[in-house]
Amino acid sequence: MTERQAIVSRILNFSCVDGPGNRLVLFLQGCNFNCINCHNPHTINYCNDCGDCVEICPTNALSLDNKGKIYWDENQCTHCDQCIDICSYRSSPKVSQLTVSEVLFLIHRQKGFINGITISGGEATMQLPFIIDLFRRIKSDSQLNHLTCFVDSNGYLSRSGWDKVLPYLDGAMIDLKSWQQETHQWLVGRDNHKVIDTIRYLADKEKLHELRLLHIPGKSDLDDEIANIARLICHLPETVQVRLNAFQHHGVEGEALQWEKCSESQMLSFYQSLRPLIPHKIQLPSVYV
Ligand code: SF4
Ligand code: SF4
C-alpha cells in the first residue's frame, strides 16, 4: 500500500509559540480560507504548474519536468522568494512532498529536544488523512509516544472530520477572526458557523488547548462584540488559554497593507475590556512588529 504524503511548505525543528513546550512544526500547503490579511498568502493555493516563476529564478532552481510539473531544486535555492513574489496564484513552487515515514524520520532525529509536534498551515486539516496516519504512528511508536500531537487550525473542519483525528489528538489551537457572519465572510471568504461549532466541540472533548483572537482595529469586530466573545469563552473549560494576536503587516499583501496595524495600546485596551469578563488565562502578544 502506498503511504500518505503531505504537501509541506515549511518545517520548523523548534518552536515555542505553536503549542505547549518545544515543538517540531510542519506547515502544510493549502487553505480553505482566503483571508484578505493573510500573513502567508503563498501558502493558500496548491501550485497549478503554470511555470510563470521558472524564468524569474536567478539560480535556475526551478524547472518544468517532462510531465509539465514544476520542479524545485532545494540545493540550488537561495530563498530570495522572487518566485513567490511573481506568483499571481497565491502559491509557491517551494514545497516538498513528504511521506509519513519521512516525517517520522525527522521527528526521531529531534525527539530528545521536543515535547511534541504541531501540524499547521495553510490549513492543516486540508490534509487530514495524512495527519491521522502520522499521529497514529507516533502514538504507536514506543520511542515517540511521549510526544504530544497538536493541530493549529482555522476551525473550519466538520465534527465528523474532527471525530476521525480525535483519538490521536492531544490538543488544538483554533483562530476566531470575527464574530459577525458578514464580517467573517468578508475577511476570510466563508462564514464562521463551523468555526464556532469547532471551538465548542473541541472544548467539550477536552481537546481545545488555545483560542486565538485576532484584533484588526476598525476591520475585525472582536472589540465591538466583546460581550458575545466573552459569553462564548465563559462556556469553555478554564484550562483553555486565550491568546490575543495583534494585526501587523508582515507578509501581508494588497489592500490589507493599507489597514492600520494594531498598536500595543489598542491591544491593551482590548485586553482590559475582556479581562474582567472571563476567568481564563489571557496571553498578550510579546512583540508588535
Ligand atoms: S508557484 Fe505560482 S507561478 Fe510558479 S508555477 Fe506554481 S502557480 Fe505558477
Ligand atoms: S526562492 Fe529559490 S526557487 Fe524561488 S526564485 Fe529564489 S532561488 Fe529561485
From TrEMBL:
<keyword id="KW-0411">Iron-sulfur</keyword>
<feature type="domain" description="4Fe-4S ferredoxin-type">
    <location>
        <begin position="40"/>
        <end position="67"/>
    </location>
</feature>
<keyword id="KW-0479">Metal-binding</keyword>
<dbReference type="Pfam" id="PF13353">
    <property type="entry name" value="Fer4_12"/>
</dbReference>
<dbReference type="InterPro" id="IPR023912">
    <property type="entry name" value="YjjW_bact"/>
</dbReference>
<dbReference type="InterPro" id="IPR012839">
    <property type="entry name" value="Organic_radical_activase"/>
</dbReference>
<comment type="similarity">
    <text>Belongs to the organic radical-activating enzymes family.</text>
</comment>
<dbReference type="InterPro" id="IPR040074">
    <property type="entry name" value="BssD/PflA/YjjW"/>
</dbReference>
<keyword id="KW-0560">Oxidoreductase</keyword>
<dbReference type="InterPro" id="IPR017896">
    <property type="entry name" value="4Fe4S_Fe-S-bd"/>
</dbReference>
<dbReference type="InterPro" id="IPR001989">
    <property type="entry name" value="Radical_activat_CS"/>
</dbReference>
<dbReference type="InterPro" id="IPR013785">
    <property type="entry name" value="Aldolase_TIM"/>
</dbReference>
<feature type="domain" description="Radical SAM core">
    <location>
        <begin position="17"/>
        <end position="281"/>
    </location>
</feature>
<keyword id="KW-0408">Iron</keyword>
<keyword id="KW-0004">4Fe-4S</keyword>
<dbReference type="InterPro" id="IPR007197">
    <property type="entry name" value="rSAM"/>
</dbReference>
<dbReference type="InterPro" id="IPR058240">
    <property type="entry name" value="rSAM_sf"/>
</dbReference>
<feature type="domain" description="4Fe-4S ferredoxin-type">
    <location>
        <begin position="68"/>
        <end position="98"/>
    </location>
</feature>
<dbReference type="InterPro" id="IPR017900">
    <property type="entry name" value="4Fe4S_Fe_S_CS"/>
</dbReference>
<keyword id="KW-0949">S-adenosyl-L-methionine</keyword>
<protein>
    <submittedName>
        <fullName>Glycine radical enzyme activase</fullName>
    </submittedName>
</protein>
<dbReference type="InterPro" id="IPR034457">
    <property type="entry name" value="Organic_radical-activating"/>
</dbReference>
